[in-house]
Amino acid sequence: MTAARLELSGLAKTFGNLPVLGDLSLSVGRGEFVAILGPSGSGKSTIFKLLTGALSPDAGAILFDGVPLNDRRPFAFMPQRDALMEWRRILDNTTLGLEVQGIGRAAARRRVAPLFAEFGLAGFEQHYPAQLSGGMRQRAALLRTVVQDKDMLLLDEPFGALDALTRADMQRWLETMWSRHGWTTLLVTHDVREAVLLSDRIYVLSARPGRVIAEVAVPLPRPRRTGATVAAIEAGILDLLLSTPTEGPER
Ligand code: ADP
Ligand code: MG
Description:
Structural class: alpha/beta
Low-confidence stretches: none
Bound molecules: adenosine-5'-diphosphate, magnesium ion
Number of strands: 10
Mean pLDDT: 92
Radius of gyration: 18 Å
Shape: globular
Helix content: 25-40%
């Protein structure tokens, strides 16, 4: 594996008396695509909140390039809901992350405009989010995320709200974009096939409190397509998930 960019060791988080993460350790190498796969409620979104600084861990360490995280976070984060602002045009939605960084709107527009074609959004700059399909909304949200030019992408179930066909389309599209750009990426998902199709490595989480029950390498060439090999890896992971006892009902 390449040298670790991101390294989490022994992360733990409890809300009130609900332990959500227990002793979670994982790493992501430079340019690697890694997935965290776990059942709903296993603390996946909480991991991202700890990374972005929205929450602090009760225990454990987060290192980036070998150094503890400070106030300047190296992540471009795409939240679980696409979080587009319905009253802003798509162009002005995609500049939001840059504006938050203090870049003026005109400069931000110059930065995002050339990316619209690559993201399949050319001609939709002046549309409002409600006028776009679900897949286009997700591409707009991803454009807003990657244009921030951070060291690493954090994607929280980016395709979770899409229908199966659109999701398959978007997975292929993300695979192409990732192969072209080499983004260091951490993807959170509860979709086993999605994890297998997209990732170099997969960390499989237990039910709450989430901890790593397996690390699965996916040594398949890209572009990947569903077939016997993918199905076999998928089946192995499902067996793992189903054979790990759950810790009580989701809430
Ligand atoms: P996942 O993303 O894997 O579905 P989450 O990280 O969103 O799971 O949540 C894990 C558990 O923690 C859930 O049971 C959720 O209800 C609970 N939880 C998440 N955030 C909070 C919070 N701020 N306060 C209390 N409980 C929370
Ligand atoms: Mg979540």
